[in-house]
Amino acid sequence: MAGICAAIEVGLPAKINVVVMPGLNEDELVDFVAFTRENPVQVRFIEFMPFSGNLWKPDRVFGYREMREVIDSRFELRALPGETSDVAKEFSIDGHAGTVGFITSMTDSFCSGCNRIRLTAEGKLKTCLFLPNRSSLRDMMRSGATDEEIASAIRADLMTKWKEHPPMSEWKHLDNLSMVQIGG
Ligand code: SF4
């Protein structure tokens, strides 16, 4: 809290990401929203996602609808305009200095608008958090590939992005990395 308050005081744009889990912190939803009344922070509630070693189970997901039920009983959220590629549904509340957002990866996927690609620390392209690594750009560069060859590999890998991820019941079969391995 001291760090967050210090960031706000010096005018840094502060974003607070909150992974919400039933029985752990869903009773803090209202407190986080109330925090945006006086503080110009962007609070984003995130559905718990499965990564290697994080003990994910479907019943540990506190979904968007459930979050809205809790929050809507106390606050009136107004949808803010966004871009197709936004990962969060953003809302303002009259009289609040900050905003509230939801990242609904598990119950209301937004893959069709997702423009995220990542490069792992080993130089491999990852076109989705939940799909296997693709081309090793590191190896291509070390073996003398041209820029056009690398661009062509990236384009081919991008075609593997899916329009929608599978339902939660199938996610345990995905061979996924941990967030630490992916790099955030
Ligand atoms: S494509 Fe992958 S990274 Fe993008 S929103 Fe869907 S699951 Fe998440």
Keywords:
16% strand, 27% helix, five-stranded mixed beta sheet, two-stranded antiparallel ribbon, alpha/beta, binds iron/sulfur cluster, 184 residues
Description:
With 184 residues, this protein is of the alpha/beta class. The chain has two domains: 2-103, no CATH class; 114-164, no CATH class. Helices cover 27% and strands 16% of the residues. The protein is built from six helices and seven strands, in the order αβαβαβββββααα. The protein has helices at 2-9, 29-38, 64-72, 137-142, 147-158, 179-182, and strands at 14-20, 41-47, 78-79, 89-92, 99-103, 118-119, 125-126. A five-stranded mixed β-sheet has the order 1-2-5-4-3. Strand 6 and strand 7 (125-126) form a beta hairpin. The radius of gyration is 19 Å and the shape is globular. The structure holds iron/sulfur cluster. Iron/sulfur cluster (SF4) binds at residues 105, 109-111, 114, 116, 128-130, 161, 165.
Helices and strands, with pairings:
Blueprint: H1 2-9, E1 14-20, H2 29-38, E2 41-47, H3 64-72, E3 78-79, E4 89-92, E5 99-103, E6 118-119, E7 125-126, H4 137-142, H5 147-158, H6 179-182
Parallel strand pairs: 1-2, 2-5
Antiparallel strand pairs: 3-4, 4-5, 6-7
The protein binds iron/sulfur cluster.
